[in-house]
Structure formats: C-alpha cells, structure tokens
Amino acid sequence: MARIAIASFSGTAIEFYDFFVYGTAAALVLGELFFPSFSPVAGTLAAFATYAVGFVARPLGSLLFGHIGDRLGRRPVLVVSLLLTGLATVLVGVLPTYDHIGVAAPVLLVVLRFLQGLGLGGEWGGAVLLATEHAPARRRGLWASFPQTGPSVGFLLANGVMLALSASLSDAQFESWGWRIPFLGAGVLVAVGLILRTSMEETPAFRELTAHQETARVPLIEVFRDHWRVVLLASGGLAIGYAVFYTVTTWALHHGTHELDVSRTTMLACIMVAVAVKGVCTPIAAVLGDRFGRKPLCVAGTVAVLVWTFPLIALLETGHPVAMTVGFAVALLGFITMFAVLGAYLPELFEPRVRCTGASTAYNLGGVLGGALTPIAATELSRGDGTPWPVGAYLTVIACASLLCFLALPETRPEPEQADSANRADPTENALPPATASA
Predict the structure, then answer these.
(1) 122 within 8 A of 81, measured Cβ to Cβ
(2) Residues 72-77: contacts with CB within 8 Å, 24+ apart?
(3) Alpha-carbon distance 328 to 323, whole Å?
(4) CA proximity to 336, closest of 145, 155, 160
(5) pTM above 0.85, yes or no
C-alpha cells in the first residue's frame, strides 16, 4: 500500500502542479502577454477565460479516460493522462507571446490549456481508484487521501517556484522569461512520475471484472442511464469546494496584487501557508471520514465554508499578511474537510464496472460548476471601489446549493462488521455498502 500510495500521490501532485502553475501565471502575467490590446481588467478576464477552458475540458477528459479505465484498466489511464498534461504544460513554456505571433498566441494558449484539462480529467479517477481498489475497506478513506494530498503539494511546488522567481527577478525579467521556467520544469516532473507509475499493477477490482468478463461495454451510457442522479448531486456538492479554493488561490491573488497593492511575494506566501495547512490536515480529515462517515464530513465542510464566506472577504480586504493568511487557512480547512474523503466517497457511490467513468465525471463536472467561472465572476463582482461583498454573496449561494446536494446523497462508509468480514476474506476486498447499490 505504501508503494501504491506514493505512485498515486506523485501523479496527482505533478498533474496539479501543471494545472495550478497556469492559474498563478494567469493571475500575474498572462493577460498582459497574450491579450495586450485589452484594458488591464479585460486582459485579466480574458486570461481567466482561457483558464476556465481547462475546467471545461476536465469532464471531457473524465469521459474519455473513464471509458479507457473501465474498459482497459486503471493503469493505462495513469500513464497517458500524465503524458498529455505534462506535454501541454511544457509547450506553454515555449509558446511565443502576442508580440511575436499575434492572434495565434492566445489561440494556441487556449488549445494547450484545453489539453491540460483533458489530461487532468483522467488523472484523478485513475489515481484515486489505484488507491481505493487496493485499500482495506476500513482504511479506504485514509489511503485514498494520498492522491487527495497531491493537489496541495502540486500547488505549493508551483507557487513556490513562482515565489522564488518573483523574489529574485525584476518585474521586467519575470514578465520577459521568468514566468516560463515553472512550465518548462514540468518536463522533469513528468519523467519522475512515469518511472513511478509504469511499474504499477492493475487493481484487484478490475482484474476480477476482466476475469468474469463483466466490464462495461459503453460505461458512459450506463453511468447516465443508471447513475445520473448521483453524478448531478455529487458534482453539485463539490461545486462550493472548487469555488472557495479558486477564490483563495486565483482571484484573491489577483485582487491582492492589483487592487490592494500587496506585493506579489506577500500574496503568494500567504496563500502557500494556507495551502500547506490544508495539505497537513488532509489525512486527518480522511481518518475522521473512516471513523464517522463520508457524508457527515462533506456536510460539515460545506457548513464551515458557508459560515466563513464574509469573514474571508473582510480579512482579505485588510491587506495584512497575518489576517489574510488566517482567512485563507480557515476557508481551505472547510474545503479539505469535504474533499479529503472524496477519494473514497465518490468511488463508493458507483459500482466497479463504471466506477472510473462515474467518479471522474462527478469530480470534474463539479470543477466546471464551481471552479471554471469563479475567478471570472469574482473579478467582475469586485469591480469598483469598496469591499467586494458580492464575492461573499456569490460563495454563499453556491454553498447553500452544495449543502442541499450533499444532504441528498447516501452514506457509503462500510459498517465495521462488514469491513472486518471483507478484510478477513481478502485484505484488498472493495465490497461496497448496501447504500451504494441503491444509490
């Protein structure tokens, strides 16, 4: 399990590094470099719109790679998705700007961002199923939290590189060539990830499906015919997590540097501390999910975000590093309370034959609902003078909708006696609780 956990964790860390480094660059420099004929605000909105393309591509990637995962196995998904995202990220690092190739620059940027999202849409499902389908039933949440920790590490790595460059380079150097370095560094990370993943075995659950010739012929049709309600409720529940995460890590970064005149280095440091706290707390929340259930943790996290939306905006507006860090950290603790258990919760909501497609689609559709438009909407809502309370109201509405979705979903945590029975029969048995079958 330790080797499997490292392989699943490393891949999500690398692919989310690729995805996040674009978001940070979009908040800092891409608007000026690829949309120079726009006003500063319009250029930022255009950069964030390109950023949103990655989220739109993620459900498509989940459908494509989910089909591969349910038909051919989880292992091929892990390799191909990593290659696709990594290659697209490296190409952004060598892409000429508008000044060199004109309108072709933003067009190519959109294409590469789409490919990034396509690969990431397949990555999460493959990595999570690698962990959950090998894990003992009673510790499924804990082991599934390793790929869920990967995004925190990927974010810290991406922003750590950006922070180091921002602190060591002049503004002119950073805008000229410094911003490209994190994108080019993705090539090295992908090579490391491939070494770890190519040696992994197929999961026991999929081997059993193939042995009994029970793999789904067209997983997508089965998911939307038999599990459409679960897909919609799960993605709706996840929307607030994505919304608050990208409010903190993308919109707040732009708002702080451009509207509050906080230095780029200070804003990156505040956000990185909050994400580090989130990463440390991920396995703790996952263990609580194994103890008390997946659904209670999701509900508790959503309520925490709901209560904190307006304090978050108030603390951000102070421009004080400590206040902003506290605001960001509490918001992300609410986020991770729900997202730490998703590695176990979403796969448990679907039967093994369509699990890769179902879990991946729900996870990435939630990203579209909560993450794609949030930086754009928040930037538009925060125009003008005064405290951007409309951003808090925007998050509040999404949190209320997500709370209703989570309340409508079933609990899936195996009962202790059921888990013990499964573990005695086979330590890697992935039997689902009765509630899941009826879901």
Answers:
(1) yes
(2) 73/202, 73/203, 73/206, 73/210, 74/126, 74/129, 74/130, 74/133, 74/202, 74/203, 74/206, 74/356, 75/126, 75/130, 75/197, 75/200, 75/201, 75/202, 75/203, 77/122, 77/123, 77/125, 77/126, 77/356
(3) 9
(4) 145
(5) no
Cα–Cα distance between 116 and 114 in angstroms, integer?
5
Per-residue model confidence (pLDDT) at position 351: 87
Is the pLDDT score of 425 beyond 80? no
Name the phi and psi angles at 35, rounded to 5.
-135, 55
Of the ranges 79-88, 100-109, 288-297, the best mean pLDDT one = 288-297
Say if residue 421's pLDDT is above 50. no
Contact 249, 271 (CB under 8 A): yes
Percent of the chain with pLDDT over 90: 31
Q: Which 8-state DSSP code applies to residue 249?
A: I
Q: Which domains does the chain have, with CATH numbers?
A: 2-201+224-414+427-438 (1.20.1250.20)
- Rounded to whole angstroms, how far apart are CA atoms 141 and 341? 6
Q: Where are the alpha helices (DSSP H) in 200-227?
A: 204-211, 219-226
Please count the other Cβ atoms lying within 10 Å of the Cβ belonging to residue 370: 28
Residue 30: closest CA among 375, 321, 269, 373: 375
